[in-house]
Amino acid sequence: MSIFDPLKGFGVTFSTMFKKVVTEEYPEDFPGTAPRYHGRHQLNRHPDGLEKCVGCELCAWACPADAIFVEGGDNSDDERYSPGERYGADYQINYLRCIGCGLCIEACPTRSLTMLNDFELADDDRQRLIYTKEELLAPLLPGMEQPPHPMRLGDNEQDYYVNGPQLARGETPK
Question: Residue ranges of the 4Fe-4S ferredoxin-type domain (predicted)?
């Protein structure tokens, strides 16, 4: 220890006193995120408005923090939520447990689950940090029907992915 150590410390303080203050105007001047930033999850839809989630629960199994709960349900002719036989009837993500690792995204076979660049997830109520299916679903685009709506499927589910929007409108595929 030297006698000049306190003077070195005061020198650092003294040198910062005359520098320009940098203030970020956060709410007004929204900062951009990296293109591949992992933020809030979103459940995507097909172009005709049907959900892509088939309720397979692979995202819940892949989650190391056990933050995802999925309960699958069966589609019927009267109520169709997804093009397949099943859909995600109950879907919840607990952001108190989520570590943002993205393993759930990699496990999804239908690319139903993706992560947005939205990073404002803080809240002072623990219940509002458990996102339900309604909060996670992508909004309907203008002109889309409100699911569930009746839909004729082909001989197999693959027909939908090839000719889905035409079948949903009742047109015959080309």
Answer: 43-73, 89-118
CATH code of the domain covering residue 99: 3.30.70.3270
Q: How far is CA 35 from CA 25, 97, 115, 118, in A?
A: 22, 24, 11, 11
Residue 160 in domain? no
Tokens in use for 49? Answer: 């408005």
Residue 90, domain member (yes or no) = yes
Residue 8 lies inside a defined structural domain of this protein: no
Tell me whether residue 114 is in a domain: yes
Residues placed in the known binding site: 53, 56, 59, 63, 98, 101, 104, 108
The residue range of the domain holding 129 is: 34-140
78 Cβ contact list (under 8 Å, min separation 6): 150
Tell me the binding residues for [4Fe-4S] cluster: 53, 56, 59, 63, 98, 101, 104, 108
- pTM for the full model? 0.69
